[in-house]
Amino acid sequence: MNFSELSRVIDAVGKDRGINREIIIEALEQAMLMAARKKLGPTAELEAHWNDEAGEVEIFQFKRVVESDDKIADDDREIALEEAHKLDEEAKLNDELGIKLEAVNFGRIDAQTARQIILQKVRDAERDIIYKEFIGRKGQIISGIARRMERGGTIVDLGRTEAIMPRQGIIPGEQYKPGDRVQALLEDVAESARGPQLVMSRTSPQYLIKLFEMEVPEIAEDVVEIRLCVREPGERAKIAVYSNDRDVDPVGACVGMKGIRVQNVVQELRGEKIDIIPWNEDVTVFVRSALAPAEISMVRVVPSTNTLEIVVEDDQLSLAIGRKGQNVRLASQITGWKVDILSKSKLDTRTKGAIANLQHIEGLNETLAQSIYQCGFLNVLDLSRQPIETLARIPGFDNEGAATELKRKAEAAVQSMGLDAASGRDIMMHNSGPTPSGAVGANATKNATMANADARLKEALANAGEGEKK
Q1: Is the pTM of the predicted complex or chain greater than 0.90?
Q2: Closest by alpha carbon to 325, among 249, 385, 235?
């Protein structure tokens, strides 16, 4: 290894690889020091310093000054005062004298060791630079060139490093060939022994948000916010938008003149349909927008099950549910509530069935049964499982005594109807098949009136279950 003209080499490496000059100098000093230690032995006390004027790494061996040659116990660590004065006239006993080593003759092995140290230091510095560059871009859109396909995804060349876009980060139906341009979200940046591991994604909801930020100046200026975003990549997405300026329509801003802004995003996502809806803190208003273009007749909130019961006209049912349940599924995700959709005719059937079921409770008339049903309880079994404090919120039972009595009678009705309170199954009929939500079994040993009521309820709720989607 030629250690001359090191200053030129340092400048060239620093420029080519973008590495700070001091880091390369430190690597050279460490490499030269290790090579010198191998040459002079482990007991020698050595230091290496870069001389910028001379353009070389200088190695100094430090020795303690002793009185005379016969006092020297270790030639590598001590020097006689007479010899020390030849190097430094002001040297005194017990001084630590730094002696510059002239032209250390490094062998081939020593040179290889030095080279390995320098290369490792340079690689470490490069990795640190790349990590710092890309960790600051995490969550932003980056571009690269597809280089090769691997089992785990697509390897993308970003210039100074590579990233992987795993299969789950690729929109269904997309295929990349070597040389194709790839744009995606930098989803993750992690340090590893092999250098920074960069992960890209085109399926992340955040990628959709960033695309709108690029297309819509009002979002970049914080006039319009994207509060929520849910996606089924390549198929459909919903974003909830909000304006901080009353004079700016958030939906119109995202759609753009003649739909140009949203169409640019759709094109980038290979035709993914995007529903842009106004965000509203009132979930009953918000869910109506989330289920558009279907027209909603009624929204009923059931806090006990975190459910929104949606009623639509019969001709709006398929529109509200969407293709393969996509519309209602995304509406549920963006609102954060379970969404059940019923046609108006099925709701009427379910309501009658639920009222009939609740009237199995001793002394409960139709008016009180309707009051219980309006609070979200569809059957006796559900009611019997509720704590007293929950039952006390029902109009007509709004004190502890009345609520306690209602729970006792509901539990008694469960027993009389032959229901297994733990599993919700009919213990008299031993029915192992699936039962629609809210359905109960008839006790064959009870009177005909009760049996017929339960049979009607089963039929009604089974029919209602066909129209109910989650």
Answers
A1: no
A2: 235
What is the C-alpha separation between 279 and 367, in angstroms, rounded? 37
User: How far is it, in rounded angstroms, from Cα 81 to Cα 69?
Assistant: 8
Distance separating alpha carbons of residues 377 and 255, to the nearest angstrom: 42
Distance separating alpha carbons of residues 118 and 467, to the nearest angstrom: 71
The tokens describing 63, both together, are 């020795």
- Measured over the CA atoms of residue 444, residue 445, residue 451 and residue 457, the dihedral's sign is negative
SS3 411: helix
User: What string of pLDDT tens digits covers the 470 residues of the chain?
Assistant: 444 455 666 666 666 666 777 777 787 777 778 777 777 777 778 888 877 777 677 888 888 888 787 777 777 778 888 777 778 777 788 888 887 877 565 656 566 776 777 777 778 888 888 899 899 999 999 999 999 998 779 999 998 899 999 999 999 999 999 999 999 999 999 988 788 999 999 999 999 999 999 999 999 999 999 999 999 999 999 999 999 999 999 999 999 999 999 999 999 999 999 999 999 999 999 999 999 999 999 998 988 889 999 999 999 999 999 999 999 999 999 999 999 999 999 888 888 888 998 888 888 888 888 888 888 788 888 888 899 988 998 888 888 999 899 989 988 988 888 765 544 444 332 232 333 333 333 333 333 333 343 444 444 444 444 444 44
By the 8 A CB rule, do 378 and 438 touch?
A: yes
Q: Which three-class secondary structure state does DSSP give residue 18?
A: coil
Distances (CA, A) of 48 to 33, 300, 401, 433: 6, 79, 89, 82
Q: Which domains occur in the chain, in start order?
A: 6-130 (3.30.1480.10), 136-203 (2.40.50.140), 205-279 (3.30.300.20), 288-470 (3.30.300.20)
First to last CA, the chain: 72
- What residues does 157 pair with on adjacent strands? 145, 162
Quickly count: other Cβ atoms within 10 Å of residue 408's Cβ. 13
